[in-house]
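Dissemination and training. As part of the outreach component of the grant, students in the summer workshop were shown how a complex can be specified as a set of sequence lines and then modelled as a single object. The example used during the hands-on session is reproduced here so that future cohorts can follow it. Participants entered these lines:
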Amino acid sequence: MIIVMSPSASPEQVKHVVGRLEEDGWGAEVSHGAERTVIGVIGTGFPPEYPDMFEVMDGVESATRISKGYKLASRDFKPTDTIIDVNGVKIGGDKFVVMAGPCSVETRDQILGTAQAVADRGATLLRGGAYKPRTSPYSFQGLGPEGLALLGEARALTGLPVITEIMEPGEVDIVEEYTDVFQIGTRNMQNFPLLRRVGQTNKPVMLKRGYASTIEEWLLASEYILAGGNKNVMLCERGIRTFEPMMRNTLDLAVVPMMHRLTHLPIIVDPSHGTGKWYLVKPMALAAAAAGADGIIVEVHPDPDHAWSDGPQALTPANFEDMMKTLEVVVNATGRTLAVMTPATV
Amino acid sequence: MIIVMSPSASPEQVKHVVGRLEEDGWGAEVSHGAERTVIGVIGTGFPPEYPDMFEVMDGVESATRISKGYKLASRDFKPTDTIIDVNGVKIGGDKFVVMAGPCSVETRDQILGTAQAVADRGATLLRGGAYKPRTSPYSFQGLGPEGLALLGEARALTGLPVITEIMEPGEVDIVEEYTDVFQIGTRNMQNFPLLRRVGQTNKPVMLKRGYASTIEEWLLASEYILAGGNKNVMLCERGIRTFEPMMRNTLDLAVVPMMHRLTHLPIIVDPSHGTGKWYLVKPMALAAAAAGADGIIVEVHPDPDHAWSDGPQALTPANFEDMMKTLEVVVNATGRTLAVMTPATV
Amino acid sequence: MIIVMSPSASPEQVKHVVGRLEEDGWGAEVSHGAERTVIGVIGTGFPPEYPDMFEVMDGVESATRISKGYKLASRDFKPTDTIIDVNGVKIGGDKFVVMAGPCSVETRDQILGTAQAVADRGATLLRGGAYKPRTSPYSFQGLGPEGLALLGEARALTGLPVITEIMEPGEVDIVEEYTDVFQIGTRNMQNFPLLRRVGQTNKPVMLKRGYASTIEEWLLASEYILAGGNKNVMLCERGIRTFEPMMRNTLDLAVVPMMHRLTHLPIIVDPSHGTGKWYLVKPMALAAAAAGADGIIVEVHPDPDHAWSDGPQALTPANFEDMMKTLEVVVNATGRTLAVMTPATV
Amino acid sequence: MIIVMSPSASPEQVKHVVGRLEEDGWGAEVSHGAERTVIGVIGTGFPPEYPDMFEVMDGVESATRISKGYKLASRDFKPTDTIIDVNGVKIGGDKFVVMAGPCSVETRDQILGTAQAVADRGATLLRGGAYKPRTSPYSFQGLGPEGLALLGEARALTGLPVITEIMEPGEVDIVEEYTDVFQIGTRNMQNFPLLRRVGQTNKPVMLKRGYASTIEEWLLASEYILAGGNKNVMLCERGIRTFEPMMRNTLDLAVVPMMHRLTHLPIIVDPSHGTGKWYLVKPMALAAAAAGADGIIVEVHPDPDHAWSDGPQALTPANFEDMMKTLEVVVNATGRTLAVMTPATV
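and obtained this result:
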């Protein structure tokens, strides 16, 4: 941590800062510069509060942490890519994974039909929500346990591993029975009791970025899960909130290569929520692949006009098929191949 | 809902939209304008998904909901101010309430001493966290049940009703025993299982604005609680996230008079989290009062340099006292008076 | 325009709104719905102020414009793609253009060397700033006319058409002598005197998006130029400002396919300013191509460590060459080819 | 400047950084910590580009400037408040100034009538635009020179000094003849040629914050004017752009006390543009005073329904009078008094 005193700071103010540091057991190195005195504090494991705590002291101009707040998630800690095995589907290597399915599980026909349609067209995981976080209490809130059972049927039919959302710690036990990957949605990225709870399981977790969360907060959220002992964490960029009203969110694709520098965890992109409009999904899926993402998660519905949620951003099976064709060429252009289900998986 | 077709929309596209509306039982009124065809759909209770669903149909330029998504929270529904009684302290009338206390409950001495200090200086509710949502897993996470018990002691000592945070549905039962107001923090504004759960209790709830939530989303979140049957909801503006790095958040005070137009629920302001720096708390508390807020919630700590969390934004008791003096003058200037504890309360 | 009255609006308030509309010569169609009265105003050419003006009238809940504010820029007005010819280089068709060069013109050797290097590696326009908008008055402000002359030399040497920035109407005459495309930077997107002035010229203009401008504001800014008579406008996405501190800007690639729907104007992407870090330029350039952009503009410097401005985001010629190889594959994957200079150009 | 090397940085990478610093004549102090090597560079006057330039070098984790980029604007440089004298009206002392008038000068009657109305009710400067920056080319663009002349008449009639907007360097001469304060609007905060040009005059300048500008960028923009020799600069907060659609802007009142810490320049608040709705102007004006602003600038129009621009945010003279009454009480509560025109002024 580096503490910069203001030009007018008094010797007593410098002493107070150094004293407070020594009280906590840290050694402080004081440099008197041309205009300002700078205090360097060498060490690791400072309390996260430290910079702000010093920054408001009298005579202090700024205090800056120089080491990152996250450890287990950082590439410094683990230089090699984490590769997550979901029932034989590898996520994070030189394969590009496509997760697809409806926003919500609605009916048996809808989920089985969609699962088969996306499996036939190259998806290797099935998405579908049984517990839905909805902005309005008057919106469809998901089928709950009945939806989970239908996902189980769809998995049995197609062999596709399932990814589905959990919203509270109390749901983890029942969801764990049916899902292959826990999805934590954007509104729950900092639901710390939930993060702690899935950290105690062995199931892979896909942690979506909070729609107004910084990269560092996102990695710290993943750290909650990793610190609990669950190493199978993948990240998912799904758009952030900005001033632009025309799209549902602003898909921040530069986090893809940035995350590859900062962390060893795989990163998936969700162009459906990231744009909110089905006709933007294909170009943004291609862009995600070109940027180096480890995969995408997209919404597919047999009849988007009649979807119970998020219809506007859902692809039809035909649109999904069209996207997959160009996607494969772009994935290959970046030196990778589309993931396929191994016989063992099926 | 108003659906505007694009200038190049075909008659078939108009027909498709109208057909989809009629399929759901709505009557559509079609107006052919100079450039565009406009479809008005008269009625109430449209599914929240409706505008987006139509907006992506072929030939549609825009679809706009014209009625609000929230009902119980709106002033149309209930024109008179909601006044919440917390053990005799009235919130929402012509009184201005001051809630004060430390960010976290740390020790018996700290919480009892702070409670007495703020009670002596005009606070009428005691704040203090026992369950803490922290960005980093390596930060102090709160004392939990032990902290709740200490808050109970502080209430017994001073007579101050207590407000404390809950983070998950499973905590509601234990927190309910000790608190007089449930606080739902910014990261949990859209924790829908939690909103539903406190909606089933009779305790007042203070719902903080999500740090990137719109006014409409905030009112829809309050609607979850109201729809559950709990009518004692107050709102709390605590700053939103913007591009400005110098303050912790951007305190959006214009929501105070805007909320008074839109809703009957009281609105409180948190200048501590809203700025993140203790020296900005007093001017922003005064500004909140001038803008017409129903009260403030501020952090006070006997020794901010040694606080276990959020020290940078905590007032000392002396600073709190100084703030209270000017605050009273500004509150009076807006035709109101500071709330006091009634004998019945003590 | 649609005006929605609040449920409690009085007949007099409705009458006032209708009267105000009729005063301006508009016919109003009043529909009395279940809860609300809605006033439809059919026509085109409403003053831009209209919705806001009505929205604050007593009894009005909302007022919404249903036609777009821009005309000449819209695809409704001109359904076919605008293709701009810059000395034989076509921008906007099935070719993908690469503009490259240093942030600032610094020395004769630097600009001639860079121009040759990017020409040799596939660029078809040369970028380079002679007038620089700099946040600090203590930063290098550009070489001015001397820089323009050096750009002229570089053009003569390589045959590359030149794109360079103008900052004020008074500079248009001199810059016009040396440049092939006027670049209007992000801070000047709403410099209306400048937009009007370049609208009077015949030179193509590249209009960068304001770093906090909406899509609609951006198209309205282009409308200033188009309305002046200059039809050769291309747009450039260069990142927007968000809460994320780790990148210089958030590159909003979804505007690429969105713009292709809304407007006939070509759209270029600037991954250098859009990220601020050279190691993010290649993946974002590939992503821009995959998303369907009509080209990119990137910063290249022979020695980024010693660049006088924006060194951190500059590619070396070697990095540029590496990017170009994969870029071509991605461009081809989207059914297009890299632009080349025609003999006539050289 | 502090440069932090990543844990895996090689000795050669450290050497490269130090070499680059020494090449520019700086001394570097290298500290080898537990995990990271930190390079401190003591000195003043680093190029603004420095931190970013080092941050992208191999092996560097972060580079942080520890001294501010602005000098003349900082309170370190000039500890005492700047007080600006506008024809006898003092801005920046223990007086609170009220600037009022219409958005645009429309007609002789309108501007003379409004000027008299606001003078009679306690305003001490007259605002009014003759050159208008408008988002759409189809909006009213201001009366230009004719509007300036009308402002001159209004000044002669009422004795109120005038503040009006300039948009380009070429307008400075003519506007200077008629105005007492140059207003630089939000879209021109970083119009550097304009800043340089008004820096060469002796007239006071009110510099509005860019709607997406940080505090530091704003102070650097003021530095352009100060560095040109014009010391009479005041700042104006007028709201920033956020994700919230319900208000035109988000008025960031915490910048008021923050600016008082960082700079000696006076700070004015514009609650009209800051909210966009007339019914929010009074509470936000009171809040601005409570927060310690040196004054406000508000829009007043005799007939907002018929205003040629920004009617929705204009107060009627009656509403202005109502605001002034409470405003005086709040100003007094903060230990100050409303500015009055001295006989000399009139």
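Residues 2-64 of chain B form a domain with the Alpha-Beta Plaits fold (CATH 3.30.70.1140). Students were then asked to discuss how this feature might be tested experimentally.
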